[in-house]
Amino acid sequence: MAKFTLYHTDGCHLCELADELLVAAQVNFVAHDIMDDEQLISAYQTSIPVVKKENGETLYWPFDELQLAKFIADN
Q: Whole-angstrom Cα distance, residue 36 to residue 70?
């Protein structure tokens, strides 16, 4: 089961970069397109990409591999 969720939308180049960082860090995550849910659109439309832990803690863009590694390690 994934411990992290990447909130994104198709065609978002920043979201693609975040996805690449997660894959490179070998993070077990699910990608969730915010366009599938009105509440997610409202919550994240101006802040995607967003990585969220199971416990609700979030990492908002911009972040780099070091910031992502720290966020993951704090899990």
A: 29
